Amino acid sequence: MTNNGAISLADAKRVLRRYWWVLPIAVLSLGALGYAATRVLPKKYKSSTTVLVEQPVVPPDYVRPVVQEDLHNHLASMQAQVLSSSQLQPIIEKFGLYPDQRGKVRNEILQAQLRKAVDVELMQPMMGAVNRQPPGFHVSVTFDNPRQAQQICQEVTSMFMEANKSNRLNKAKATTGFLGDQLVQAKANLDEQDAKLADFKRKYLGMLPEEEQANLNLLNGLNTQLEANTQTINRAQQDKAFNETFLSQQEANWKNTLAGGGEQSTDTLETQLATLKAQLHDLLLRYKPEHPDVIKLKSQVDDLEHRIAAEPVTPPTLPPASASAKTPREPAQLQQLRGKIKQDDLNIADLTRRQGQIQNQISVLQARVQSSPMVEEQFKQLNRNYQTAQQGYDQLLKNQNDAAMATELEQEQQSETFQVLDAPNLPGAPSFPDVLQFTGGGLGGGLVFGFAILYLIAMTDKAMYSERDVELALKLPVLTVVPSLDQKMTRKNREVGHSRKFEPSVALKA
To answer: Which helix (H) or strand (E) is 50 found in, with range?
Structure first.
């Protein structure tokens, strides 16, 4: 008798000893049923092959491959492509599959059946391998005809290899085309930035950052020229003033001579000499003897001294009567002085014009130097944009060249390819149903089924075989036990020990 579904070891032994024949019957029956199923169920034959992934002939360090997709994703994409309806229907028609169902069911149902018959499984990478990518994959086809299973497996494998080739080549061409389009756009952008930079340089010629130092040097040089030109103008004005003074004196002397009837006196020349020496003395106080004004004034003093020394002493004479009626001719000395004054005016005008030009150039250079920071900021922005466009173009050009080489490798089958390790085999024995699996499964199932029957027998047995059973049934303690008078039962109870059969009437209430 069981207690809430719990079976003791003694109960199990008792049931097993009494109903031992249930186990062999259940095991043999289900084993025979499993074997019979192998003879009745339709046979399925499995043809399989192994496809390895070969690495590129050219190392990736030399030519970087365009397609670097993970094999899991790549195989899933190809499997969806190969096992699509557009690919499976030609296989059905090519090998005449499902002849008894064609025309009776829709093509989608036949394609679904064929899709279930094809199995693709990735190979596990070897332990300790650096590259954890699967080395290949298995393709297997399970069909009711061994020859057709082999043909279908070979066809599907060829489709996988062709899909891999076309997919990689198409992706490489698409990548190359995309990079080519991007390169054209990058070239147009680079030309645009180059044109902007060239226009900016033409517009701000002379104010560019690299010309700032040259402008400063030119400005310093022009300031020096302006100072020298100003000094030259001052000297020219002094010469003109001296020549004008000297001319006025000479004119006065000449007029006095004409009015008094005599020549220029020596005292007048000496007076001029004294005046020149006084001017020379003033210049020496301001300049060195090597100064051009000092040298020039010294030359004039020397000339005047020579003239005084060479002047003849002649008595005054009256002019003839005929000469008084004629217009007197101006002396050559006065004409020379007038020519010098005119030349001084021309020199002063030329120097003044030159001074204006220098001042204009200084103004232009000063404006350039003042505008240099603003121009430099704009130039940096344009140059930065140009450098960015140049770098982008160079990078795209390199990528486009790499993609072109990778595409050429794909076309020449020198990149990552699929290689069939073993051709699809022709199965000699059916893979389904498997006699060993079905028979072993039947025997194991029969064993489990037999134990389940024994468990049910033990659960449904309400007989009491021990003191515990009596206590469980009556819920009263047992005070004494009266053995059975049956000799056979007595012998059995002696052999079993505590396993005795009791009548419910022997239980006494305490």
So the answer is: strand 45-54
